[in-house]
Amino acid sequence: MSDSPLLKDRRPAATAASSTASPCADAHPADSSGVSSPPLDSTPSSQQGAHAGRRRFLQSAVAGAALTSAPLAARAQQAAPVTAEAVPAPAVFSPPAVGARPVQLTVNGRRYDLQLEPRVTLLDALRDYAGLIGSKKGCDRGQCGACTVLVNGRRINSCLTLAVMHEGDAITTVEGLGSQSAPSTMQRSFIEYDAFQCGFCTPGQLCSATAALTEFRNGDASAVSADPRTRPASLTDVEIRERMSGNICRCGAYQNIVGAIRSTARAARLPTDPTEQAVVPGFAKRAPSKT
Ligand code: FES
Ligand code: FES
After folding, report:
1. Can you tell me which atom of ligand 1 is nearest the CA of 145?
2. Which of 147, 191, 206, 236 could in theory staple to 159 by disulfide, Cβ–Cβ 3.0 to 4.6 A?
3. Which ligand neighbours the alpha carbon of 145 most closely?
4. Could you report the per-residue pLDDT of 80-133, keeping only the tens digit for each?
């Protein structure tokens, strides 16, 4: 019966050292011709004994680790299904799919028969279904005012409302304020006062400014009115700025926008502050270039 590695290792170090076999014999077994390979290590026998002791220590440590970890691994395998059962998967709510349905919108006096899913916003319905791309999508979350349109004369952010809620309403977009050949007074003033740079916010600014003058004419106060129960005596620049505060212009054309609105208010004979002058040179008022 051949010696097991453990039995071999239990031999006294001196015996193992005095054996004719090298301590590294396991690493250099006899080849098929029966001739043992010469030991590569010519270490003295006292050091060979120390190597054998170190190897026995490593072997026993590995065996001990295997014995210790085996029951733990078995226990972990048994515990896994219990944990999976104890924590049930969360129920996933999947709403039933709702298809498109016929929606009738009246925009700029014209009727549009559209097929819309209930989740479509008024802004998307105008731009993507009715083809009215004048209203712009700046933020799609009610922060910039680029999507402002008029619904029954009042300004709203069309990105924050659903199209199906506006069947029967009179919707006005920037395309409905005027035409290229006959722009509205507000549109003329914006051109005259150069009240834009890139123009992305301009459709919303025009709709908002148009409604702001109507609100002032109807007697609405604003957050800066001295007495919120009554309309202020005049439409000052502070009033204009407050009433237009929902429309952001990233180009910073605010001074010219206020000038255009003030000019339109004066043309409509609304009271404005006479001390505030239209000091902004308008594009149309500039002297033609001599070059
Ligand atoms: S896109 Fe509607 S508020 Fe900005
Ligand atoms: S003109 Fe560019 S954002 Fe207003």
Report:
1. 3
2. 147
3. 1
4. 555 556 777 778 777 677 899 999 999 999 999 999 999 999 999 999 999 999
